[in-house]
């Protein structure tokens, strides 16, 4: 049996039904009543049809992996009706350089036929994750200048 089951419901209809109430929706009263999304397959965390991973058949998600790495999660179109089997995950370790990871994300999504409009957002999210995983440099100790420096030098001698 090589046939793939397609969803019986269109993506647009699913969005229209679920857009005002779903498990991933976060409504804020502050900030003009902004709506955000906690969907793991939503690259921008915006509550919109374009980025909603649970609605789109081909969705992409980026999240942090262990030891400074980045993980790419994609939704398989082959198993739309089987939630346990409809995700594929690819990870890059923290040992790889940033450009190699970004090139890998672009190549993987392009070769698998994922949406080209999400590639730039995926690379931007991976870059932000990599930046957040770097250890913070401590601020250098401020040097005394002017008259305070002269007074400190006189006390030392």
TrEMBL record:
Name this polypeptide is given: Ribosomal eL28/Mak16 domain-containing protein
GO molecular function: structural constituent of ribosome
Origin superkingdom: Eukaryota
Biased composition (Basic and acidic residues): 135-157
Xref: InterPro entries: Ribosomal_eL28, Ribosomal_eL28/Mak16
GO cellular component: ribonucleoprotein complex; ribosome
PANTHER family listed in its UniProt record: 60S RIBOSOMAL PROTEIN L28
Domain Ribosomal eL28/Mak16: 13-132
Biological-process GO terms, alphabetical: translation
The family this protein is said to belong to: Belongs to the eukaryotic ribosomal protein eL28 family.
Pfam annotation, one family: Ribosomal_L28e
Region: Disordered, residue numbers: 73-99, 124-157
Keywords noted in UniProt: Ribonucleoprotein, Ribosomal protein
């Amino acid at each position: 049996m090589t046939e793939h089951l397609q969803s019986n419901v269109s993506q647009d209809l699913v969005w229209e039904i679920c857009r005002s109430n779903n498990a991933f929706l976060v409504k804020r009263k502050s900030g003009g009543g902004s709506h955000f999304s906690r969907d793991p397959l939503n690259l921008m965390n915006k509550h919109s049809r374009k980025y909603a991973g649970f609605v789109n058949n081909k969705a992409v998600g980026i999240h942090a992996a262990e030891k400074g790495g980045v993980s790419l999660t994609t939704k398989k179109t082959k198993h739309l009706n089987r939630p346990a089997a409809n995700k594929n995950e690819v990870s890059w370790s923290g040992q790889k350089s940033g450009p190699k990871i970004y090139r890998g994300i672009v190549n993987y999504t392009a070769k698998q036929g994922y949406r080209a409009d999400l590639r730039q957002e995926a690379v931007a999210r991976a870059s932000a994750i990599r930046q957040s995983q770097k250890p913070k440099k401590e601020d250098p100790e401020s040097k005394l200048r002017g008259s305070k420096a002269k007074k400190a030098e006189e006390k030392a001698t």
